[in-house]
Each structure stands twice: as C-alpha cells, then as structure tokens.
C-alpha cells in the first residue's frame, strides 16, 4: 500500500482515513475535497484517523483534523484516532487536539470508542 | 561567487561555523525537501531525535508559510540558509522570500491567527516555531518579503 497519500475506507457508518507518512501542507491539500465527497456519498457518523504510517506531522495536520472534527460535531458525529507515534503525539498535544478527539492504541479500540 | 573565492570558510575539524544556503521554488512539494535538508545538515551537531523533530517541524512551518502566503499565484523562490556553530552547538535556520510580506507581524504571530479563508489552516505555525526553537525573529515588509530567523541551542 502506498503511504505517501491518504487512503480511505468507508464501512457501515464509519470513515477510516489512513494518513500519509508525511502529514504536511503539501499532502493535506486534497483532504477536504476527498472527504467532502465521501461524506456526501455515504452516511457517515464516525471518522477515525489512522496515524500508523505517519512519521511526521506539523500544524497543517492540526488544521485539517480540526476541520473534520467541526464537520462531524455539526452533525453530532464522532471522531477518534489511533496509531500515533512519538512525534505525532507531541504535535497533537500541542495543537490541543487531545481536548477534542480521543486517541487509541489500535484500530479496534478506536472503532469502538 | 567572487566573495566565496576571496573568503573561503576554513573548517578545522570541529571548529567554527558550517554553512549551507539553497534556493528553491516556492512549491509545496519542497516542504518535505526543506525538512530533510535541515535534519541531515544538523546531524553534525549530534542532536537527539527529539531535537531533530523540533527543527524539522519549525522548518516545515516556516517554509509552508512562505509557500502559502509568500507569492500568491505568482510563484517565486524561497531561500534557506542554515548555519551550524559547532563550537557553541547552535543551529541557525533562516527562511526567506521576496514576496508579499506581512503587514502586521505582531498580529500575524498571535496563536490561531490566520489570513486563510478556507477554514483548513490552524494559524498555529508561528506558535509551533516558537515552541520548538529557542529564538524566533520575523522581519517583514509589505511588498518586500519576509525573513524568518530561528535558532536552536543543541544539547541544552
């Protein structure tokens, strides 16, 4: 699987967004249009972010996560994440994401949480 | 070129200032490239993994700002200047553009402030630079461009 870009999994009412290895402005450019399309085509009430293959993230990633959170919050949906490594965890903490979105160790917990 | 020939930097093993300067197109695909260059260059200061991550993140923020805001649709170039002071273990990274400039630097550097209207930008770029580097200075003038100078004291 190519981890240089986003990949998506829509199952039942959950959208899993597999984040790329480098979650920066360049790679985030299309996230909004991709997810808007998926949210239009499917009834989604839960978004789960998969950081398993993400080794770097900066504030661009914070921006897109917050936007998706606001979208879900507006429709009473739920957002969670899993698989965050050391660098990612620091950025998520600094960006205030943990106050809004809960992080899990693995996919199964994130899907249930 | 002439001044380089007249004043060659003499590097006696481990002493003095080591320096690189490069110029790149103001394109988002160069954000990663800039991070990698900074990370590799700073390794001569024997940083921890966390210090490398810190610098990569700060560089990413500064270059991203230049790419997004610097030239609008015109395109342009971004200069990156890195100095490793091996005596004092200090890394200095300067990112500059000759683009639109920032009208009010103080306001621009406030946490969460962004001029982006898409709703996708967090406005945390400068906050992250200040959190991860020990000194951050921004010089900018509308119509002239922007220079972000950052220092990190490695091993302290």
TrEMBL record, chain B:
SUPFAM superfamilies listed in its UniProt record: ATPase domain of HSP90 chaperone/DNA topoisomerase II/histidine kinase
Keyword Transferase: yes
Enzyme Commission number(s) from the entry: 2.7.11.1
Histidine kinase/HSP90-like ATPase domain: residues covered: 50-156
Keyword entries, A-Z: ATP-binding, Kinase, Nucleotide-binding, Serine/threonine-protein kinase, Sporulation, Transferase
GO molecular function: ATP binding; protein serine/threonine kinase activity; sigma factor antagonist activity
Protein name: Anti-sigma F factor
């Amino acid at each position: 699987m190519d981890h240089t870009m986003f990949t998506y999994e829509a199952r039942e009412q959950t959208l899993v967004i597999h984040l790329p290895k480098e979650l920066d402005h360049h790679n985030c450019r299309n996230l909004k249009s991709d997810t808007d399309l998926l949210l239009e085509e499917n009834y989604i009430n839960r978004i789960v972010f998969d950081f398993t293959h993400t080794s770097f993230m900066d504030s661009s990633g914070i921006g897109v996560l917050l936007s998706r959170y606001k979208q879900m919050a507006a429709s009473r949906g739920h957002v969670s994440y899993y698989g965050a490594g050391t660098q990612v965890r620091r950025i998520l903490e600094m960006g205030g994401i943990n106050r809004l979105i809960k992080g899990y160790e693995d996919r199964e917990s994130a899907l249930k949480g | 070129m002439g001044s380089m020939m007249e004043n060659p930097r003499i590097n006696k093993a481990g002493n003095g200032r080591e320096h690189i300067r490069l110029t790149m197109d103001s394109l988002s695909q160069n954000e990663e490239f800039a991070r990698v260059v900074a990370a590799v260059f700073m390794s001569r200061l024997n940083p921890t993994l966390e210090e490398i991550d810190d610098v990569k993140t700060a560089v990413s923020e500064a270059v991203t700002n230049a790419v997004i805001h610097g030239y609008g649709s015109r395109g342009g170039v971004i200069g990156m200047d890195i100095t490793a002071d091996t005596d004092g273990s200090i890394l200095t990274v300067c990112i500059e553009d000759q683009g639109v400039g920032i009208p009010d630097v103080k306001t621009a550097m406030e946490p969460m402030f962004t001029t982006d209207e898409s709703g996708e930008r967090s406005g945390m770029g400068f906050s992250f630079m200040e959190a991860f580097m020990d000194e951050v200075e921004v010089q900018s003038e509308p119509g002239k461009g922007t220079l972000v100078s950052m220092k990190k004291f490695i091993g302290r």
